[in-house]
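Case study 2.
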Amino acid sequence: MNKKIGNIFKGDKVIWMVFFFLCMISIVEVFSASSNLTYKSQNYISPIAFHAGTILAGAVVAVLTLNIPCRYFKLLTPFLLIISGITLLWVLVGGESINGANRVISLPGGITFQPSEIAKGTMVLITAQILSAMQREEGADKKAFKYILFIVVPTAALIGMENLSTAVLLLTVIFLMMFIGRVPMIQLGKLLGAAVFLVAVFLTLVLTLGSIGDNQEDSKQTTEAVSGETDTKVIKGGGVFHRFVTWRNRIVKHLDKKDIAPDEYDLDKDAQVAHANIAIVSSNIIGKGPGQSVERDFLSQAFSDFIFAIVIEELGIIGASFVVLLYIVLLYRTARIASRCENNFPAFLAMGLALLLVIQASFNMLVAVGIAPVTGQPLPLISKGGTSTIINCAYIGVILSVSRSAKKRMQKMAVKEI
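Prediction:
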């Protein structure tokens, strides 16, 4: 019996344990944080049943993926690149809007998926291939830097038009992969300098054009209200400024740190941040206990973007620290696995995917505790999701596949020594 179970759950046991704990925490916390969904649908089982089903499907995907030898992942690259390009263009033109941005594609049967999730993994896969193929004794060939940017930058630009935080996440991971892949430091230094300059220009444009767009939208809203035909879609923003307005407002709100008396705080205007802060402050050391959250009824996206605030409220500082520890262990263990790989490709691929998961988790946590502006990044393997959950499970499957090949190599080396 144990042998049969071992044949199913192959790969690194520590990664499996991290995956198991994250999934269990996800089921408990999403069930608790989905109170608004259950209230609206008057069905207390449906939201958590769907999420648990998604987790189960993701686990199956992870098992199937880990049984694929690493060398076969290279064969998927051209197909994934084509799919990523087509779907990213598709979502910009005919995507479904979420929170004012076109981010998902709706398919028959009520199925939706986010092209950016596929694109992120594809870029990591391509970067791993280029870095491994162009490794020299002194480091990566200088041409590797150009090839990577030639593919990654246009993809990040397509993603960034509607989902800036995901584009920043992707570029950060790719930069770290190039550092790990020994791309010449002079090239990375120039890239970092260019990035700082572009960020400064971008912030200037956002703060300037976003202010103009905000004024235009306020004018539209007033006009429509006078005519008695207020349209929520018009109020949310449109045209060339619709994302600039959102980005500017998030930056300005985050930088505005002046103290406000509790009775003067506008809960309607800053509800997400306010209720997230209340959830965290009221948590104490051990928390209120699973399912005992109060702020879940008031916090928008409590089951997704701000689920870490609910985790802190219910599980306390101890439980939140355990969640952070799980992601740290995931990154550390993947680094150990990568160091044991015989070839560069699986090592770079595993590290890239682990960085993708851990840095995204960091983004989410920093937003929840108020250190970073709101980004809309879910907490990997914990937040409620469809496409993102399945694909994140596939990433875990790839890391486990790499761990299998690394383990076989270590076993062969041990036999030779004997």
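Residues 185-227 form the longest helix (43 residues).
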